[in-house]
Amino acid sequence: MTATIAVGSDHAGISLRRRVVEHVRQRGHAIALEAGPQDGERSDYPDQAAAVGQAVASGRAQLGVLICGTGIGISIAANKIPGVRAALVHDPVTATLATEHNNANVLCLGARLLAEPYALTLVDAWLDASFVARHQHRLDKLHALEEAD
Ligand code: RB5
Known about the structure:
CATH topology: Ribose 5-phosphate Isomerase B, Chain: A
Shape: globular
Bound molecules: D-ribose
Radius of gyration: 14 Å
Mean pLDDT: 98
Distance between the termini: 35 Å
């Protein structure tokens, strides 16, 4: 399956962001948008989380990838957008389970923690996995939390 993917990073993730854009294009996916600074610029990860998260929540992109130094800040920010299920992953198991159990529509990576070729294998694991439908009722409860306030 090919998807439309939004990719964003803060300054800590510029190099990996470019590698991810190139990698997913090579896999046949379309880039809906690329958000983030250029070399030498600094930025604040909530800004890229908002750009990518809103693209996913609105349907402009089917999936998103977000990168900051640790992946922590940008995943916290993305999960504040209703409709976003952002998963911070560190290894192929969590990347696969992020799709199988959580149907994560945004993958978050820590550029300062992961070698770039290894990070790309996590993108592949996330994209190649399939959601397991028996977890749907849990996603329904996540959605209900968004409606609760
Ligand atoms: C930026 O220095 C750094 O704080 C950011 O990339 C990220 O790691 C925050 O969670």
